[in-house]
Amino acid sequence: MKEVKCDCGHVNPFGTKICGKCGMDLGSEQENKLIDMRYEGSARRSQTYRKTVIDKIWNFFSSVKVGVTLIVIALVASAIGTILPQEMYIPSTVTPAEHYESEYGWFGKVYYELGFHNLYSSWWYLLIIGMLGISLLVASIDRFFPLYRSLKKQGVIRHDGFMKRQRIYGVTKLDEQDIDLDKVKTELKRQRYHIREEKGHILAEKNRFSRWGPYVNHIGLIIFLIGALLRSVPGMYIDKVVWLREGERKEIPGTNGEYYLKNNEFTLEVYDKGNKEDQQYTAAIDKTGTIAKTYQSDVTLYERKGEAIPGEKVGLEKVKDYKIKVNEPLKHDHYALYQVDYKLDELSTMSFNLINKKTNEKFGGVKIDLNDPKKNYQLNKGYSVDLISYFPDFEFDEKGEPRTISKIPNNPAFIFKMHTPDKPEGEVSFVAIKETAEPLGENTYKMAFNGVETQDVTALTVRKDLTLWILFTGGIIFMVGVVQGSYWNHRRIWIKRKQDEIVMAGHTNKNWHGIKRDIKKAIESTSLSEPKDQLEEEKSSTKGEALNG
Amino acid sequence: MDKKKRRLISRTIILLLLGAALVFALYTNFTKDKNDSLGKGSDAPNFVLTDMKGNEHKLSDYKGKGVFLNFWGTYCKPCEYEMPYMEHQYQNYKDQGVEVLAVNVGESDYAVDNFITKHDLTFPVMIDQGREVENAYRVDILPVTFLIDKEGKVIDIITGALTEESIQKHMERIKP
Questions:
Q1: Contact B8 A130 (CB under 8 A)
Q2: By the CB < 8 Å criterion, does B21 face chain A?
Q3: I want to staple B147 with a disulfide (CB 3.0 to 4.6 A). Which of A58, A102, A405, B156 is the partner?
Q4: What is the CATH number for A514?
Q5: Are A499 and A171 in contact (CB under 8 A)?
Q6: ipTM above 0.90, yes or no
């Protein structure tokens, strides 16, 4: 592990391929015509130190091969995860094991057994992504600092071997006349090259910052990854749904009881041919029937005052009224409420009149709140009705007995006992929508249907995402890195003045055409001969050989 | 050599930090599902509800006693199935320091009263009108029973209908 001293006197770290200062070849194992300029031939730490466990781990993550392998694994796994629906999207009526097997056969079974049904939160998937993040960071550290240092320390005067093995290389013999390099300098300056001079030798360089592009890009990616991982931290991300009837006020789920919301009104507006403003949509309406114009929930937001435990009467303070529409969420304190669904005309009350079946004489009416019915309703003097049973969402079970399948009044049914002066013990009547029965014999009286009231129900998504700005920052930095690295090129031109010749060499990290054009322009007014692209020459010469042979 | 030592230290620190971040990410993700429901061993969220007889029940007042906290609805068949067993075991265990609290998921007084009469329930039954207790306990599927020990910790969460035998076993677990 010795440091390497170059002939020019510069001391390089072990593993350096090209002297950081003069560019002399220190690697000496390669006999290629052109020099490998990657990372300026500087010593990547990972390749040189192999001592402790920490160094070994470091080297593992620093390896590009490892990084690429991780990317490929992550890509393939992510793709496989999309073949069948993930666990959260399958019906919850059967166990996942049964579902995958019955639905997709042996493939589904294998899929489930291998854990692909819950891929994106499985420990090994996260481990791969996490390792990818580590690899990204370690590899960047390992390459950025040596590269930065060698570009900072680079000398103006380069070794002859270095110059000769650059892709762009040219020699101009000086016969009698001398060549004025000042013209070249001026022209290069005009092209925004920074000129460094030493003993009449020149280094012109521009856009070095474009070399940092990949590292900036990696930093952005890592920030993005951190943001994505933070989603699973409690309190950072909430995604819930709340259903609210008109007039109902409820705690907003996910806010720990801090906020309450009241639905004042829900409106569904459709485009109307009769309306002058909407006449331009006539053709579309004719084609598809009804077209929704707005879904709107008029709500009031309340905030809890002071501490309260669930179930306790809480003091609420009105925060604001708001009209929630699609794409116009109610935003407050990092929470956002989006219009997501609705239900029109849910039954809220039902009215009946007690009448004599023969004479149709009325003895008063009842209005039953379907969400809060009473046991007993008093009618005209001497007349009353007991509600014996109430089924908000009625159906007959397998034994033929009436029951309710939910608490929502989708299909209400009632069993009434009607007390009248001539039937004081009461008559029993079963009343459902479009259905009445008199289970205990023929009745004199009946509960005649007298209308309903309905209300709309709105569904809102409760969303909180504190990771969004992190993802956004990461994304922007990522893009800055991409732009920095791809829209500018790091170009360098070396001009070495020797006794009877001037040697020119050029290097760029991409866009060789660009640097050639820069050089051509710079030497236009001088008698310097234009340097050649050695790679192209090599290509054409081998092509020629192939043709001849 | 000094330089090498410094490098080793900085590498160790960076790798430790990254490793810690990875472990943290795996841990939070692993416990995410549990955050969405209440975890076993966590403190039972306190609440206060008034039962159908007008008595107020505050969970924290039952410290020192085991609490068999059941969430149910009249429309839910398995809830109805386990009610008589709960009533029966309540009679056995109420003098041994086990309290049964049956929280209805916001139905009408009428429906709940009828249900109590039908099944002759004597343990406190209360309606969670605002669904706040349900939210606090992250109730999803009915019926669900939270076994709360005398320290006020949730020791187990059981979804689905319970048999009389299993109810007795669970009461035994929370008996102080």
A1: no
A2: yes
A3: B156
A4: 3.30.160
A5: no
A6: no
